[in-house]
Amino acid sequence: MKWNGWGYSDSRFFFNKKGQAEFTGKRYRLSGLLIPGLKDWFESTFGANLQHKTPATAILNSSAVLPPTLNDAFVEELKSTGIPISFEAEDRVFRGHGHCLHEIFALREGKVGRVPDMVVWPSCHNDVVKIVELACKHNVCLIPYGGGTSVSSALECPPEESRSIVSLDTSQMLNESGYCTGHEPDSMEFSSLGGWVATRASGMKKNIYGNIEDLVVHVKMVTPRGVIEKSCQGPRMSTGPDVHHFIMGSEGTLGVVTEVTMKIRPMPEYQKYGSVVFPNFEQGVACLREVAKQRCAPASIRLMDNEQFKFGHALKPQVSSIFTSFLDGLKKFYITKFKGFDPNHLCVATLLFEGNREKVLQHEKQVYDIAAKFGGLAAGEDNGQRGYMLTFVIAYLRDLGMDYYVIGESFETSVPWDRVLDICRNVKARIVQECKDKGVQFPPLSTCRVTQTYDAGACVYFYFAFNYRGLGDPVHVYEQVEHAAREEILANGGSLSHHHGVGKLRKQWMRDTVSDVGMGMIKSVKDYVDPNNIFGNRNLL
């Protein structure tokens, strides 16, 4: 794994000597392929120049990491348990950050702030109980660590924390069972089950399988007060407020999730991708709303706006035959010339159907029939499949951008159906205006997609990026723009977060989001379960 970027060390985008983009490694369908359209899109969109590079620090300088602040009595008792521990700089730095822009930007420059003083690897529930008991006894701060994919500053060590900070890494507690839960967040390669529960995660196939709160049957969590768990695994209980909902979304502030019982399904018999082109975003949203109204959404349905469509097109790998190239040209001609779709307004929905083959085919026809009523044209399986394949490599693109003075990020919200178009339009416009006001010299990329549908609304993802050449403090400018975008989301009736969580990045809006009384309830639970703030990551509160 990279210590200062996303994903595996052998997997990355780069521009070769001919200026063509490539993706290295052998882990993904895109690996080893040329991506001929990316360079032109990258340079024209951001005003970037391949001659202007900002390479990342290649190797962590251990001397840049402050020596650990250790609680000797805690360490000695912990050693006697036989639970693996480490004080190594590399282990501590790796678990001292998530993937917010400011975190990765600093690491690329070799700057390391407050990191855990040591790392501990429990292998079972009882190991966690021992660790928490010793932390309480010796007043040590614990920060649970799952897969490290947080984008809410949740893993950052509070700089004002004077106690010894221990990263409690749960990676050795995972079991592979070979079943399908259907929960597939974009970070599923690296994120953990405990992290999904602690952040109230959502996956791209939630239309069939549900969000994490729909999949969890039983949870066990170790807190400073003891272990929280229900007495049985019944499918539903009417026993007062559901304690699972105190655990889900607690973001490491109350304890460590050690065991989770999940619903499972047989692996789907049949899987089919698809895509639909709409003449504009408005008709695409109307189609998704009708699909949700009729409760016939496929496993996944995601609508990209025009800017994101062009972005996705730029990531298309080089075709292997003249015939394939000819067919692609024919499709483009049919859509833009024969059907009259404007290339600067059209948008695309990607689809994924799963289940029994006969039912999938019936389901597919139903969705395409609805799409046709809103001007949608079937655009083939290949486009749909490529769209979902890109889900797992798109995060690597931020590292490529930062190699050439381009910084960017994504953030999300949920919003009622009657506000979807307004929020998409207004937030994108606010990002463009804020970048201009803050002195960004090049027009930013400001784009969105509708990624999840519900009866009452949808999840919307925003992406923005800009060329920061000429800016003295690009991260500060970025944070100002993101802050303004979040304010715009809330002003337009959107939620603080759909599934990324709050962490420290968004906690300033928590009181307005859940009310004074709601904050008081959360704080009361924290004060009772963890009176000495052993789980002192300072998320949420």
TrEMBL record:
**Annotated function:** Catalyzes the exchange of the acyl chain in acyl-dihydroxyacetonephosphate (acyl-DHAP) for a long chain fatty alcohol, yielding the first ether linked intermediate, i.e. alkyl-dihydroxyacetonephosphate (alkyl-DHAP), in the pathway of ether lipid biosynthesis. Catalyzes the exchange of an acyl for a long-chain alkyl group and the formation of the ether bond in the biosynthesis of ether phospholipids.
Under catalytic activity, the entry for this protein gives: 1-hexadecanoylglycerone 3-phosphate + a long-chain fatty acid = a 1-acylglycerone 3-phosphate + hexadecanoate; a long chain fatty alcohol + a 1-acylglycerone 3-phosphate = a 1-O-alkylglycerone 3-phosphate + a long-chain fatty acid + H(+); hexadecan-1-ol + 1-hexadecanoylglycerone 3-phosphate = 1-O-hexadecylglycerone 3-phosphate + hexadecanoate + H(+)
Q: Which organism is it from?
A: Takifugu rubripes (Japanese pufferfish)
Tell me a GO biological process for this protein: ether lipid biosynthetic process
Which InterPro entries has this protein been placed in? Alkyl-DHAP_Synthase, FAD-bd_oxidored_4_C, FAD-bd_PCMH, FAD-bd_PCMH-like_sf, FAD-bd_PCMH_sub1, FAD-bd_PCMH_sub2, FAD-linked_Oxase-like_C, Oxid_FAD_bind_N
Which family is it part of?
Belongs to the FAD-binding oxidoreductase/transferase type 4 family.
- Could you tell me the EC number(s) of this protein? 2.5.1.26
Partners and quaternary state?
A: Homodimer.
Domain called FAD-binding PCMH-type: residue spans: 58-267
What is this protein called in UniProt?
Alkylglycerone-phosphate synthase
List the catalytic residues: 461 (proton donor/acceptor)
Q: Pfam families, alphabetically?
A: FAD-oxidase_C, FAD_binding_4
| GO terms for MF | alkylglycerone-phosphate synthase activity; FAD binding
The cofactors it requires, by name, are: FAD
Which residue ranges run through the membrane? none
| Predominant location category | membrane
What metabolic or biological pathway is this protein involved in? Glycerolipid metabolism; ether lipid biosynthesis; Lipid metabolism
Localization (cell): Peroxisome membrane
Which GO cellular component terms, listed alphabetically, does the Swiss-Prot or TrEMBL entry include? peroxisomal membrane
